[in-house]
Specification:
Strands 1-2-3-5-4 form a five-stranded mixed beta barrel. The protein has 206 residues and is of the alpha+beta class. A hairpin with a 5-residue loop joins strand 4 and strand 5. The chain has six helices and five strands; from the N terminus they run H-H-H-H-H-H-E-E-E-E-E. Helix content is 46%, strand content 16%.
Length: 206
C-alpha cells in the first residue's frame, strides 16, 4: 500500500526528489569518510558572487547563504515532504490522488519560499566558514595547495588555502606565468582576479 502510493505516477517528481536526496546524502557521508566533501567541491566549482547581478537574483532563492549541497538537500527534502503530504491530504479528502500537473507547480512555489526561509535560519545557526570575518584579499601572499586538476593559462585548478583562523577556503588557481601548476603542489597566491575566487599563483619552493 505504502509502496504503491510512493511510486504512483502522480508522485513521480517527489519520488525522484527523494531518490536524489538519498544519493546526495550517501555520497556526502562516503566523501567525508575518505576525507573529501562533495559540498566543498561544488562550492569551489561554482563562483557565486552575491554582489553581482546574477548573484543578487539567486540570493533571493537562498543561494549563497549556505553551502550548495545544504541548499540542495533542504530543497529536495522540503519538495518531497510537501509533495507527498499534499497528495496524502487531497487523496484522503476526494478519494484519489490528483494529477502530477495539478500538484507540482504549487508545491514547487511553496518549496522555493520555505527553502529560502530554512537557508536563512541555517545560515544564522551555522555560519559559513568563508564568512568568518575574513577578507579574501588577505589570502594574497599565502601558500595554497592544489587539490584537484592541473592549472595552466587556459584552465584553472581547484585549491585550498587556510585563513588566519586556520579555516580552509576553496579557491580556483591559475598560474601567473607560463608554468603549469600540478595537482598536489603548493603555490603562493599573488593576486585575485576580478573580485572572484580565482587567483593567479606561482610555484612555492621550500
Amino acid at each position: 500500500m505504502i509502496i504503491d502510493f510512493l511510486t504512483h505516477e502522480a508522485n513521480a517528481p517527489y519520488l525522484f526528489s527523494l531518490a536524489l536526496l538519498v544519493v546526495f546524502f550517501v555520497v556526502e557521508v562516503l566523501g567525508l569518510l575518505v576525507g573529501m566533501s562533495i559540498s566543498h567541491a561544488l562550492d569551489g566549482l561554482i563562483d557565486f558572487d552575491v554582489d553581482s547581478d546574477m548573484g543578487g537574483h539567486l540570493s533571493v532563492l537562498g543561494l549563497g547563504k549556505v553551502p550548495l549541497m545544504v541548499w540542495l538537500m533542504f530543497f529536495l527534502g522540503i519538495f518531497t515532504i510537501l509533495g507527498y503530504g499534499l497528495n496524502i491530504v487531497v487523496s484522503s479528502v476526494i478519494g484519489f490522488t490528483p494529477s502530477v500537473y495539478v500538484s507540482v507547480l504549487p508545491v514547487l512555489a511553496v518549496t522555493i519560499y520555505l527553502n529560502r526561509i530554512a537557508c536563512g535560519i541555517f545560515s544564522k545557526l551555522v555560519p559559513l566558514v568563508e564568512t568568518d570575518s575574513v577578507d579574501t584579499d588577505s589570502f594574497e601572499g599565502k601558500v595554497a595547495k592544489i587539490t584537484l586538476g592541473h592549472a595552466s593559462n587556459d584552465r584553472y585548478a581547484m585549491g585550498i588555502v587556510l585563513d588566519i583562523h586556520g579555516n580552509s577556503h576553496n579557491i580556483r588557481i591559475k598560474p601567473m606565468g607560463e608554468d603549469e601548476l600540478l595537482e598536489g603542489s603548493e603555490v603562493i597566491l599573488v593576486e585575485r582576479i576580478s573580485d572572484s575566487n580565482l587567483w593567479h599563483a606561482i610555484s612555492y619552493k621550500k
